[in-house]
Amino acid sequence: MSEDRDDAQPAGTARPPRPGATRTALAALSGLIAGFCALAVAELAAALVRPEAGPVTAVGGAVIDRTPPAVRDFAVRNFGTADKLALRLGILVLLALFAMAIGVLALRHRRLGSAAVLVFGLVGAVAAAGRPEGVPADALPSVVGAAVAVAVLYLLAGRLAPAPGAGPADGGFDRRGFVVAATATAAVSAGAGLLGRRLTSSVQAGASASRHDLVLPAPRSAAPAVPAGADLRIRGLTPFITPDEDFYRVDTALVVPRVDAGAWRLRIHGRGVARPVTVGLHDLLRREVVERDVTLACVSNEVGGPLVGNARWLGVRLADLLREVGVRPPSEGGPADQIVARSVDGMTIGTPVETVMDGRDAMLAFGMNGEPLPFEHGFPVRMVVPGLYGYVSACKWIEDIELTTFAAYDAYWVRRGWAQQAPVKTESRIDTPRTSASPKAGIVPVAGVAWAQHRGISRVEVRVDGGKWHTARLAAAGTRDTWRQWVWEWPAASGRHTLEVRATDGTGATQTGIRTGTVPDGATGWHSVVVDVS
User: Fold this and answer.
1) Omega cis (within 30) before 257
2) Quick one: which of 23, 21, 20, 18 has its CA closest to 159?
3) 114-143 burial, b for 16+ CB within 10 Å, e for fewer?
4) Each residue of 29-54: pLDDT tens digit?
5) CA atoms within a 13 Å half-sphere pointing along the CA-CB vector of 532
6) Strand pairing of 495-505 and 527-533?
7) What stretches of 50-109 show up as alpha helix (H) in DSSP?
8) Which pLDDT belongs to residue 22?
9) pLDDT tens sequence across 464-501
10) Which of 398, 433, 414 lies closest to 531 in space, CA to CA?
11) Angle in degrees, CA 380, 382, 385, rounded to 5
12) Which of 29, 231, 396, 510 is the most exposed place for a label (fewest CB within 10 A)?
């Protein structure tokens, strides 16, 4: 027999949340607010120290430093130049989850929750100061942010504690006091974050102005005009010159360094340097300036991948500068066989001295496609060495050149499993048609690019469904340091077909069909696409 109850829940109405559940949810919110406050205050402090000292950037850099090559390649392959954004978002999501967990912990153990915040602050401080370019002051933003977060969390957790005189309608705690404290803290944190961003922007404005005001000199040795017919202008085919905005970018910088051109300096020192020297940008601009078309490629480029580009570079010959300070290559008895280039963000790149000084157009570049280098590509000065993968030659934001030996020092990527030396392998790629394309039966132009920097491309061949190789028509050659376009007119029949391409370099060596991964010195194999001809 049922019994009517006055307090029975009316049918179809939601049961009000329990006071305990409400306090737990607000505790998680308090942790989130404390975390937001920590990041905002740290952002403000980093603006006064340097932007790279911010905790998210520092922790992200530490993660990149410890990422296995296979994971790094996965990120580059799947996210491309957005891999840094994905990492930052991932870090922020994890921080938010941990912050909420710490907020719940502080509800029950305020001191233990505060101690957990300090631990996270310590992680950020160690990550910032421990980076290759880090200094003790870089720990300051994380420490200050954590200290403020401790105070905020302690305050908000206190507002959630059982309050005398608080009735059930208030959940048994000072609801009004919590709302006021949380709102005020969030507002002040937002203000601190905005102020930090504004200060950082004002500092970076000087670097932007220095780039805007830089007048590039006319080259004394200009690049030859791009030959007529070097760009086949086929729809879907990569252009001969890659626009700046389309040029690939692969580096470890979560925050793109913005270096003031007037303050930039490059130090050259080390073994075999008879006269160590420090030069500024205007010292380089007064030297003999050369202009060259050079194709660069990333060692993380998968077979058929997009991490390769061709640009017109303006700069000075690095070999001339090295000889002036007394450097001799090993073939002439020099004691150093490795150049270690250091970037302002702490990156180190090792390049063979012999390669830089063998007569090729290795340069310190300050111009790209007729403009000062973009910040993303190394402004104010970067290295460009034809024929080597970027991780052993293309140091961006360079500030130091040390002459040493491969036996004495392993550069950044070498310590992570990559080869000490890495000449670019002969590669080719089909740009059109793309995989899963559905061209109509008949003559279909199969076109793409091939590259073997400092050796040049002498032949490209295409085959269909594993059949015989057909010689493609080559576009006019730029130089042996640039890629080369090609096209084969395919008499396509209906059905599904697999197209493959291979190239032969200027020495007569044909690209291998054996598939290997990118580690330790670049991928190999023939690029293929599968198309359905209708």
Assistant:
1) no
2) 23
3) bebbeebbebbbbbbbebebbeeebbbbbb
4) 999 999 999 999 998 999 989 888 89
5) 3
6) antiparallel
7) 55-65, 69-79, 83-108
8) 86
9) 999 999 999 999 999 999 999 999 999 999 999 999 99
10) 433
11) 155
12) 510
Q: Which of 353, 356, 366, 215 is nearest to 290 (CA)?
A: 366
Q: How far apart are CA 50 and CA 272, in angstroms?
A: 34
pTM for this entry? 0.85
Structure tokens at 153: 């969390």
What pLDDT, on the 0 to 100 scale, is given for residue 466?
98
Cβ 289 vs Cβ 320: under 8 Å: no
Tokens for 179, please give them: 């709302």
DSSP notation for 369-407 = TTEEPPGGGTTT-EEE-TTB-GGGT--SSEEEEEEE-TT
Query: Is residue 320 within 8 Å of 335, Cβ to Cβ?
Result: no
State the CB neighbour count (10 A cutoff) for residue 272: 19
From residue 190, alpha-carbon distances to 29, 40, 178, 183 in Å are 16, 7, 18, 11
Contact 77, 301 (CB under 8 A): no
- For tokens 């991932």, the residue is 90
Q: Reduced to 3 states, what is the DSSP secondary structure of residue 486?
A: strand
- The predicted-structure confidence for 282-329, as pLDDT tens digits, reads as follows 999 999 999 999 999 999 999 999 999 999 999 999 999 999 999 999
Q: Please tell me the distance from the alpha carbon of residue 365 to that of residue 371, in angstroms, as a whole number.
A: 11
Q: CB-side exposure of 454: number of CA atoms within 13 Å?
A: 18
Please tell me whether residue 328 adopts helix, strand or coil conformation. Answer: coil
Work out the angle between the directed axes of helices 175-213 and 19-49 (0-180°, nearest 10).
30
Q: Work out the burial of residue 286: count CB atoms within 10 Å of its CB; fewer than 13 is exposed, 13-18 middle, 19 or more buried.
A: exposed
Determine the Cα–Cα distance for residues 122 and 131; give it in Å rounded to an integer: 14
CB 297 within 8 A of CB 427: yes
Beta strand pairing call for 398-404 and 265-270: parallel
Among 416, 530, 442, 420, which residue's Cα sits nearest to residue 494?
442
Determine contact, residues 430/304, Cβ cutoff 8 Å: yes
Alpha-carbon gap, residue 399 to 132, rounded angstroms: 14
Q: How far is the first Cα of the chain from the last one, in angstroms, to the nearest whole number?
A: 75
Return d(Cα 239, Cα 229) in angstroms, integer: 12
d(CA 44, CA 53) in angstroms, rounded, equals 11
What are residue 311's DSSP bridge partners?
A: 294
Q: Respond yes or no on whether the N-terminal peptide bond of residue 162 is cis (omega within 30° of 0).
A: no
**How, if at all, do strands 363-368 and 371-372 pair?**
antiparallel
Q: Which residue has the tokens 């829940």?
A: 9
Residues in a beta bridge with 516: 524
